[in-house]
Write a structure and sequence with these properties.
Helices cover 45% and strands 16% of the residues. The chain contains seven helices and seven strands; from the N terminus they run βαβαβαβαβαβααβ. Strands 3-2-1-4-5-6-7 form a seven-stranded parallel beta sheet, with helices on both faces.
Length: 238
C-alpha cells in the first residue's frame, strides 16, 4: 500500500484530498498546525490515516514529518504540498509581515517539504511530488503581487525539478486551481481588497473535492506517465 503526505490537511483541499486518497486505498499522513482538527479527521478515517503537527515554514517540522511518516508507514511514496496562505494587499499598503509569511509558507514551505522526502525517492527511483499552486501563478490581479510571485516561483521551481528528476524516476506535478471554496480567503484583512473582489468573483467556485479528484487522477497514472501541469477552473471563471 502506497503512502502519501498531505500538507494543509486540516481543511479545504488538503482535507478533501486526504479523505479521497484513503478511500482510494492509500495510507495518508495528514499535516497541519491544527492538531485538534487533524485528530478528529484521522479518527474518522481509521488505520490508514495518521497525523503530525507541522508548521510547513519550519524546516525542522518538515523533516520530522517525513521521519514520522516513515516510522508509521515505512516510506513516503508521494507528497501533496498543499498548505498555503493568501493575505493579499496592495503593495502601497506595505504589509511586509504578510509578504514574509506568504514567502515562508507558499515558497519556502514547498521547498522544505520536497527537501525532506526527495532523497529517499531518488534512492528508490520512485516517488511523486504534487504541488498545489494557483491560477494566480499565471494571471495577476491588483493586490496579488506577492501571492502571485510565490505561486509563479513555485511553478518555475517545480518545472525545473521535474526536468532534474527525469533521470531518477521521480514525477513532479503542479496543479493550478482557480476559485475554490476554502478558508484561504479568510486571511485577507485589507477591506479595500475585499470590496474590490466582491464584484469580480461572481461565479460558482470549485469544491475542494474537485481538486481531490485531480490529485487522485494524477497519482493513478502508470510510472511511464507524468502529468506535468494541470489547470482546473470553475466553468464561470474567465
Amino acid at each position: 500500500m502506497r503512502t502519501v503526505i498531505v500538507t494543509g490537511a486540516s481543511s479545504g483541499i488538503g482535507e478533501a484530498t486526504a479523505r479521497k486518497l484513503v478511500q482510494s486505498g492509500y495510507n495518508v499522513m495528514l499535516a497541519a498546525r491544527r492538531t485538534d482538527r487533524l485528530q478528529s479527521i484521522v479518527e474518522e478515517l481509521g488505520e490508514q490515516a495518521a497525523f503530525h503537527a507541522t508548521d510547513v515554514s519550519s524546516r525542522e517540522d518538515q523533516d520530522a514529518l517525513a521521519a514520522a511518516t516513515i516510522e508509521r508507514f515505512g516510506q513516503v511514496d508521494a507528497l501533496v504540498s498543499n498548505a498555503g496562505i493568501m493575505p493579499v494587499s496592495l503593495i502601497e499598503k506595505g504589509d511586509v509581515e504578510d509578504w514574509d509569511r506568504m514567502i515562508d509558507v507558499n515558497l519556502r514551505g514547498v521547498l522544505y517539504g520536497i527537501n525532506a522526502v526527495l532523497p529517499q525517492m531518488v534512492e528508490r527511483k520512485d516517488g511523486h511530488i504534487i504541488i498545489i499552486s494557483s491560477i494566480a501563478a499565471l494571471e495577476t490581479f491588483p493586490s496579488s503581487a506577492v501571492y502571485s510571485a510565490t505561486k509563479s516561483g513555485v511553478r518555475s521551481m517545480s518545472d525545473t525539478l521535474r526536468k532534474e528528476m527525469t533521470a531518477h524516476g521521480v514525477r513532479v506535478t503542479t496543479i493550478f486551481p482557480g476559485g475554490v471554496k476554502t478558508e484561504l480567503g479568510t486571511s485577507i484583512k485589507d477591506q479595500s481588497v475585499l470590496e474590490m473582489m466582491g464584484g469580480v468573483f461572481d461565479f460558482e467556485f470549485l469544491e475542494p473535492e474537485n481538486l481531490a479528484d485531480s490529485v487522485a487522477y494524477v497519482l493513478s497514472q502508470p510510472p511511464s506517465v507524468c502529468v506535468g501541469e494541470l489547470m482546473i477552473r470553475p466553468t464561470g471563471q474567465a
